[in-house]
Amino acid sequence: MSFTDTISFQPHPDSLSRIWWCVTGPLAFLPIHAAGIYDTDSVDSQLSDYAISSYTPTLSALLEPGNTTPTSPFKLLSVIQPSAPGMTHIPNTKEELGYIQYHLTGRSHVILEGPQGTKERVTKSMEDCNWLHLACHGTQIPEEPTKSALILEDGHLTLEEIIKLDLPQAEFAFLSACQTTTGDEKLSEEAVHIAGGMLLAGYRGVVATMWSIQDDLAPEVTDSFYAHIMQGDERPDNTKAAEALHFSIQKLRKKPNIPLTAWIPFVHLGV
């Protein structure tokens, strides 16, 4: 039985359907967006040939607010934290920032790099900027999932702190960090992870990771993503983030010697 028979989608590489996965229980830990048959040379054997996948922790998270037109000027905050106390150095973060700067030419951009990336400055800047890009360490704490955190210059920005943020102008966040959608096995019915916290804080869409990612590939995904979503001079549309991630990952997959585990972790949540 093919995907066409099952979900009535047709493969259209340049105009794919959208599908949102609201998964619970053990399914919450599976990369459903990567479903397919990989031991065949036949075309159209994978879900990504038919649809662009997103995830949502709850159906209510997909409901649009009353006013869907952005009311504040576009401004992106980049937090670049290649090292932190007790953590290994993350290579290529400057390269990642360079790609962002290139694609944002002429647009408002706030950069907090290294020692500038304190919790106070980051959270304050998140209030002033409606887009966010974080290149830093992330950690999931299975014993206390609300203590899961993004690791900044002077400490951990925890999930419980993120949830308490009030960000009415927030639109989109790209979490270029490890384990930002890794949930808790004991609370699989709940979105107890950093990406879910970003949605609760007000972001309408989030790009995040299911588990650890290869440091050398993060800049490539970043480059392709912003090249796609920042086309032209118009204000970037955060609702196109899932599409931008999809085509960025498809481009990555075409490179030689790219294993499944390299691209599967990248996921989109929200609208």
Descriptors:
single chain; 271 residues; alpha/beta; Rossmann fold; 6-stranded mixed sheet; 3-stranded antiparallel sheet; 8 helices; 20% strand
Task: Please characterize this protein's 3D structure.
The chain has 271 residues and is of the alpha/beta class. It has a domain at 75-236: Rossmann fold (3-Layer(aba) Sandwich), CATH 3.40.50. The protein is 25% helix and 20% strand. The chain contains 8 helices and 11 strands. The strands form 3 sheets. A 6-stranded mixed β-sheet has the order 4-3-5-9-10-11, sandwiched between helices. Strands 6-7-8 form a 3-stranded antiparallel β-sheet. Strand 3, helix 2 (93-103) and strand 4 form a beta-alpha-beta unit. Helix 6 packs across helix 7 (241-253). It is globular, with a radius of gyration of 18 Å.
The number of helical elements comes to 8
User: What is the quaternary state of this protein?
Assistant: single chain
**Neighbour order of strands in the largest sheet:** 4-3-5-9-10-11
Task: Compute the average pLDDT.
Answer: 86
CATH topology of the domain at 75-236: Rossmann fold
CATH class of the domain at 75-236: Alpha Beta
Strand percentage? 15-25%
- Contiguous runs where pLDDT drops below 50 for at least 5 residues: 183-190
* Largest sheet geometry: 6 strands, mixed
